[in-house]
Write a structure and sequence with these properties.
51 residues, mainly alpha, 3 helices, elongated
């Protein structure tokens, strides 16, 4: 699987961190972490891989 799953998780974390900055820069936002979409995306990307 290489490092695709970890890169996907890191990207999700980075997006959450960016979204949390909205309140101080451009309005307001409510950010709640949710693992399910990240896990679903990892499975989508790797479901047809065969090690």
């Amino acid at each position: 699987w290489g490092c695709v799953p970890s890169k996907t998780m890191i990207r999700a974390g980075n997006l959450l961190a960016e979204a949390r900055r909205v309140n101080g820069m451009a309005g307001s936002a409510t950010v709640r972490p949710d693992w399910a979409p990240v896990a679903r995306r990892v499975r989508e990307m790797t479901s047809d891989w065969d090690d």
